[in-house]
Amino acid sequence: YLSVGAPVYFVVKDGQNYTDAAGANQICGGMGCNNNSLIEQIARMSKMPNYSHIAYPASSWLDDYFDWLKPQSSCCRHDNTGEEDVFCNATVVSTSCIACRSAQESANQSRPTPDEFMKFLPWFLNDNPETKCAKGGHAAYGTSVKVIDEGKKSRVGATSFMAYHTLTKTSKDFIGCLRSANEIAEQISQNTTVEVFPYSVFYVFYEQYLTIVHDTIFNLGVSLAAIFVVVFFLLGFDLLSAVIVVVTILLILLDMFGAMYLWNIPLNAVSLVNLVMAVGISVEFCAHITRAFALSQRITRVARAEEALAEIGSSVSVLSGITLTKFVGIVILAFSKSQIFKVFYFRMYLCVVVLGAGHGLVFLPVLLSYI
């Protein structure tokens, strides 16, 4: 009834020794396992779903495997009368099928030896659950355990333990689930031999939001710095002109963020690429007029700004060559049937052209007339 969200897998990387008691105790959740084991920590987090975003404890193939091996369960049986040891599932009725581990072995050592662990594990992973044996691991754990064959011996590679997130409806919920799962996995990794990381089907779409603010500041900062250096050199080492161009572009970006907020355009990887591109396009609206102002032979600042606006602003450089041509090309995007083209391309590109032209043809000449 959709009372839970997407499944989340806590993946234990290759290198964890499950055949050793210490290594297994770091993962399992039964008797003798560590209080801070993977299963125990996820179980505690599931009792605080509003905080952890974990709805149910994780299912453990390791604990079910230990239960499956117990002779009382009649799950693990084999026929060793022939040349090869043959597995007998719970439905096989034969006097030659005996328990994989005797009651005496289970009493002396509750867990299997390393050889027994690796010998019976493939049988467990291929055993279908039956009425007489519900612990068969084929259905639940068939793809959760990677068994690596190394010639005469085999070992357990990467494994996963599945839990469920709480119900997620909004982007905030999805981001909260991802952030919480990363924190839980980091805590678990402190008590396991190898690293543990979370995975869910929606993580690939929301991973960007964990670092999007930092990425935005970094990318836009690097873009503005690069423009400052290039403009400084190409305008004849004119420091003030380079500063004015960068300040104008910075104000265009500020207005872009305001337009994104008013037009419900979220900040994500696509809009960040458009913002970086907007920085580059904005140079065209500012650099030509600034250069014309710097090279003008008029006496007063107002006269120089007027000449720069009259000769460069209305010519092929800004108004006709940049603003109108880009505007015509962008209008076509408004008729697209795709939402991503309408929201992230038409709206943002339109804002770039309108705000760039406004700052280049209105704001910049006024600013130059005062400086």
From TrEMBL:
Keywords: Cholesterol metabolism, Disulfide bond, Glycoprotein, Lipid metabolism, Membrane, Signal, Steroid metabolism, Sterol metabolism, Transmembrane, Transmembrane helix, Transport. The keyword Translocase does not apply. It is a multi-pass membrane protein. The chain crosses the membrane at residues 217-235, 242-263, 269-287, 308-334, 346-368. It catalyses: cholesterol(in) = cholesterol(out). It is found in: Endomembrane system. Belongs to the patched family. This is Patched. It comes from Ciona intestinalis.
